[in-house]
Design goal:
six-stranded parallel sheet; five-stranded parallel sheet; alpha/beta; globular
């Protein structure tokens, strides 16, 4: 990897780094056709797409029972790892559950209550790799939120990865379907003969999955549109270049379209990281890693100062922000836009991917500027509650009437005035009775 100076980036180079997107524009038409076929043809379309895209013949689409069997059949060590990760993830998300509240505001009893969505669909990727971690990350927060039915779609295969199935069982998935890609999102959003319709679809996936979520979001809620995975490492001269390089390589391992960047104001560290990356690319996914790291969206960047490096990170708005620096807390305080932050040399992103506890389904492509990752709140709906006494309404009545009439909504004003006249009449009657 070459070291590039932040100050010398051309407009095109800046766009490549800072304006990452999900890459769905050129497949929107194809995805729309897939979604429409599933919506109108149901299971027939799902089985045909399984043959075409997954090269497998699907019998029953419902494989919920297979998840329970997989849990009993997998290696004991893998089962323990899944259960440990699930426990950590569940414990973290239980801290997020909000409490209903009511308070008195000078006679206005105001509050907020939270209720879970009834039916949620989660997409768990498969295909070239297995993602039991995504099974845990999508299903567990939904169940912690109290969602009654969590339906999961995962790509079909002659034998679906047992680790993914076992993780779905541990997480508490209520329904599991062997359906993949854009057609899975459509099945969850609209329902078929076998797949029950849900109210919201969440979870990571490739650009076909993302494009399908974009296509259905007017009919079914989604979490967010996520693109290829990404990491931004902010480091100073105290960082271990081998650690920084390892995190870049690990992120690049996901996908040839993944983005992996490191930024520092220390030239020696920048050169050492670049060298360590070159030396560390190996293994079965070496080609994927190299493609990701050689893209214009990846690289080691040299800032003129740490403040400039911080500004780089804030503009980047990373899915994963790793701060490997002596003053990591102070640096984090200066960065508002990041999906998940990893502080210190012994907090690799991979720990968060699997078992630290926080969710790994996070916004990409700068989405962290406006949103956070998957959480318990993703699966809740809130209702504000108001109860006003007559005196409290009287206190704000003139304000409401004035604003309503200013907007030309006389009926709004009258809905307040009629109550206040009645209240005044009751008070006058009470006064006469007392006399």
């Amino acid at each position: 990897m070459d070291v590039r100076a932040v100050a010398d980036l051309s407009p095109d180079e800046r766009r490549a780094v800072f304006e990452r997107d999900a890459g769905i524009d050129d497949i929107e038409g194809d995805v729309a056709e897939i979604v429409e076929r599933v919506r109108t043809e149901g299971d027939v379309a799902l089985r045909e797409f399984a043959e075409e895209f997954d090269e497998t013949t699907v019998g029953s689409l419902d494989v919920t029972d297979a998840a329970e069997r997989a849990y009993d059949e997998i290696d004991a060590g893998l089962r323990e790892a899944i259960e440990t990760a699930a426990e950590n993830i569940r414990e973290f998300h239980e801290r997020q559950v909000p409490e209903d509240w009511r308070e008195d505001f000078d006679g206005r009893e105001l509050g907020r209550r939270y209720r879970p969505i009834d039916r949620v669909g989660a997409y768990v990727p498969g295909g070239a790799a297995a993602y039991p971690s995504s099974a845990l990350m999508t299903v567990i927060p939904a169940k912690v939120a109290g969602v009654e039915t969590v339906a999961v779609a995962t790509p079909p295969a002659d034998e679906i990865n047992p680790a993914t199935l076992a993780a779905l069982h541990v997480a508490g998935a209520d329904e599991v379907y062997q359906v993949g890609g854009a057609q899975a999102v459509a099945a969850l959003a609209y329902g078929t003969e076998s797949v029950s319709r849900v109210q919201k679809v969440v979870g990571p996936g490739n650009r076909w999955v993302t494009a399908a979520k974009a296509a259905v979001r007017n009919d079914c809620a989604i979490d967010f549109l996520a693109g290829p995975s990404e990491v931004c490492v902010l480091a100073d001269g105290t960082a271990d270049p081998a650690f920084v390089a390892a995190d870049l390589i690990a992120q690049a391992e996901h996908d040839a379209n993944a983005s992996a960047v490191a930024v520092t104001a220390d030239e020696d560290l920048a050169e050492a990281v670049a060298a360590a990356v070159e030396a560390g690319i190996e293994g079965e996914r070496a080609e994927t890693i190299r493609k990701a790291l050689e893209s214009d969206a990846s690289g080691v960047f040299l800032a003129r100062s740490m403040p400039e490096a911080v500004l780089f990170c804030e503009e980047y708005a990373a899915e994963h922000l790793s701060i490997q620096a002596d003053e990591d807390e102070a640096l984090l305080d200066r960065i508002s836009s990041a999906g998940s932050a990893f502080l210190g040399p012994y907090s690799p992103v991979a720990a968060g991917d699997y078992a630290a506890g926080p969710n790994h389904v996070l916004p990409t492509g700068g989405g962290a500027r406006v949103a956070g990752g998957l959480s318990v709140e993703t699966f809740l709906r809130s209702t504000t509650v108001q109860r006003l006494s007559a005196d409290a309404l009287d206190d704000i009545g003139e304000t409401v009437e004035t604003l309503a009439r200013a907007e030309g909504l006389d009926a709004h004003a009258e809905s307040v005035a009629i109550r206040l006249r009645e209240h005044e009449s009751e008070m006058e009657n009470d006064e006469r009775l007392r006399e």
